[in-house]
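Task card 7
Instruction: Convert sequence to structure tokens.
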Amino acid sequence: MRAVRFQRTGGPEVLEVVEVADPQPGPGEVLIRHAAIGVNFIDTYHRSGLYPLPLPSGLGSEGAGEVVAVGEGVTRFKVGDMAAYAGGAPGAYAELSVRKADRVVRVPAGIDASTAAAALLKGMTSEFLLRRCYPVQAGQTILVHAAAGGVGQMMVQWAKSLGAVVIGTVGSEDKAQRARELGCDHVILYREQDVAEEVRRITDGTGVPVAYDSVGRDTFEGTLASLGRRGMFVSFGNASGPAPAFEPARLQRAGSLFFTRPTLFDYVATTEELDASASALFEVLASRVVKVEVGQTFALAEAAAAHQALESRATIGATLLLP
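Output:
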């Protein structure tokens, strides 16, 4: 099969397509032939070395397709099932992938492989952020950075379905228009406007109870200053670089704030949690409460171009590789 590998960390140019032996499932595993592969920011962190991996390495943690073989003891799936996964050992950028059956979810009828690959990681991330990390309540005003990005788009729609008032930040007027279409009640151009000043204006000076920040370094100070008393800063990405170190006493001085740096995989650690999160996602997708936009697709051999597009922040919605 063809697969993307990298021998050293660096820019997108380190990615190369090679031919390797087809993998075979062992006990408790399934073999999936990919129809679509999700491209996510965490993949760029692995490639650059921000999140180090043993080298040489495969890349990618999200895919969907048909189960073509099952290992000994697997009863959760059978050959021919449509399945998807998000997480596990990097290696999704390939035509085939072996995955532990208890970390794979069944894709229900009516949802195609491209939708599943585009939505699973971002959608389960949205689910745990909005429903479990900080349970958003109807009537609350929340701040969502990168509202036109892959996770941001899903979070805006899901938050609106929960009855929240959503303030979204974006980097361009084109993305601002997209954020409004998704349901943002207020949109801030963070490169041109003072985020905290705008949030305070919108909230009559009180600030927001929760702010979701996937941008990192560039938005850190604005996010901190946007929170109301006992508000929660949810830092879950580094699109502009890692958030800076800070003195914990700043949280006290700013109103007894909370700060968390969560990861999806601590919220879907068990098979039961994984199934529940995926089920909640597939439910809002099936009901069209949340729609996932595949903004751009690339061939497997164009993985480097996909990373260039993602890191330039020129993408809108989800990015897929199609083997």
